[in-house]
Amino acid sequence: MARVDPKAVLEGRIPGRPPVALIAGLTTTSLCAVIALGVDALYGGAGFWVGVILAILPIPLLIALALTLDRLEPEPPRALVFSFMWGAGVAVLGALLLNTLGLLYVTVPIFGEAKGHFVSATFGAPLIEESFKGAVLFGLLWFRRNEIDGFADGIIYAAMVGLGFAMMENITYYMRAYEDGGAQQLQAVFILRGLVAPLSHPLFTSMTGLGVAYAATHRRAQLLAPLLGLLGAMILHGLWNGATTFGLGGLGIVYLLDFGVLVTLIVIVSVERRGTVRRIEAYLPMYAGTGLVTPQDVRMLRSIPSRRAARRWARSVGGRDAGRAMVDYQLAATELALLHQRADRGVAEPHWFATRRDSLLELMGLARQAFLRTPPRAGAGPPWAPQGPSGFLQPPAPGPYGR
């Protein structure tokens, strides 16, 4: 198993190659974030550190909540980190510069002070900010299209970008609230932005994520779908910014709108997850001849609780390494089903499909060896196959994957 890098196989990248592009990207985004923080610190005084603490405080919980949507087929951590840092760095700094220039040289000179700020917030800021946030999603579509297997993936990446952007933006809002109104106003702003509606930016950008995900998994609307998604993000963002200028009534409307969008996204992810389960049931049985999967194993793969129970069994049988092998097996099997979905939709080039299929089957076979080398004691077999065969108990089948 030492000759195979499971993470590289699952992520569809060349093993052992230094992630030069990722390192350069993280360096750039981090530098942009530092510059943006420096601007806030320059003008923020003591309120800057208050804003930093309050802005960071809910982020781990919000990220954890977003990742609960991604348990069946988790995205590569490196891609999620880059997306978050893009939102916190490039998107924030770019929006700061263009929004400021727009106010100074376009909206305020044309419409006056008060109306200029309203026009900038309602029309200019959504266009600029969603374009910068969406740029990383368009980049994933262009450079890492095969990493996006469905709407859930688009939503997850969009959520990471949005959370990074919101964290940095909130620093400014908390800093200003502290300076203008002290602790009382800061408390009110934190409740509204940090507790009541902390997912606004992720929800806006999720519209772009949906469009990008559709383009990545379908042959039609390759350009139209992402552009419509970006337009939807801008409209939601503009409605939010415009409505908040009308007091509590406006706030109530946009909070209800956010809640409705959130519920819709959860429904989309739930429906798609059921579709993934159906594809696991449909496609994996064709590989029964390899000895890697049986009908009982397919039942184990179809739900999160049964997968979790399988990982517990694996750790009890062979320790941490066996538990890791079971995770590799489960993820590779899911990726195999999603690969067939791509082929059915005509978005999988035949040579790439064959290479990807073979690498996933090889990973499943190597993960399986961790159990066949040290078979469980009598009566301690896989709990999902108490009366039937399992690929984790059968002798290796002849052929390239069952060896």
UniProtKB/TrEMBL annotation:
Keywords: Hydrolase, Membrane, Metalloprotease, Protease, Transmembrane, Transmembrane helix. It comes from Actinomadura rubrisoli. InterPro entries: PrsW. This is PrsW family intramembrane metalloprotease. One of its GO terms (molecular function) is metallopeptidase activity. The chain crosses the membrane at residues 20-39, 45-67, 79-106, 118-143, 155-175, 195-216, 223-240, 246-269. The keyword Protease applies. The keyword Manganese does not apply. It holds the Pfam family PrsW-protease. Residues 375-403 are annotated as: Disordered. Coiled coil: none annotated. GO terms for biological process: proteolysis. It comes from the Bacteria.
